[in-house]
Design goal:
By secondary structure, this protein is an alpha/beta fold. The strands form two sheets. A six-stranded parallel beta sheet has the order 7-6-5-9-8-10, sandwiched between helices. A four-stranded mixed beta sheet has the order 1-4-2-3. Helix 2 links the parallel strand 2 and strand 3. The longest helix has 17 residues. The chain is elongated and about 65 Å long. The chain starts with a strand and ends with a helix.
Amino acid sequence: MSTIIEGRNSVLEALRSGMPLIKVVIAEGASGTPISDIEHAAEKRGVPVMRALKKKLDQHSERGAHQGVIAHAEPFPFASLEQVICAADGKDRSLVVVLDHITDPGNLGAIVRSVEVAGGDAVLIPKRRTASVGAGAYKTSAGALAHLPVAQEANLVRSIERLKEVGYWVAGADASSDTMAWDAPLEGRLVLVMGSEGEGLSRLVRESCDFLVGLPVAGKLDSLNVAQATTVLAFEWVRRGTTR
């Protein structure tokens, strides 16, 4: 079943972000600069554009705010945790980043980009209370969503325990930790757990980590954005692998 994207700005952003779209449907008689921009972007991407009666768009609209434009997107092909584990089987070095209810799509996409560039194996997200893999995530991932597996599991704690069973150490990012990244064992087969933008790690997820790690702060603010922090920690893992 396709994912529905509705509204002129949302559809245009989806086209520009590289999100895989099946088709764009525009209401009969809809015109103007936004519509022509959508048609040009779709032509550039090779996405079919169809015209239909407004009542047809009304039938497909989920929010009742399609503004005469609806796009049908391919459902995102989530991996399973077991697929991630199988792909990393036998590796001495492997990085899996677990996101504990990250809700900003821009952060999700930026994290996927950093993990892919760092040579990580996957990003794992929960099925509920998490950012959707939509146009915002595609935009900030800069194409990385097409290359890095994103797994989605119902229970993060159980998933973390499963990763421990196959030889991963689990590091939870926590700004209050006394152990700085440079002193923590961020190497080998590593699961890096990043907490939500507002509340950090949830209690049960925190308790499932083998150790907590922080980043030193020299300025007046007390922490980095979660995507920036993930980049720093992921590349500390990269550094350990290139200096051994």
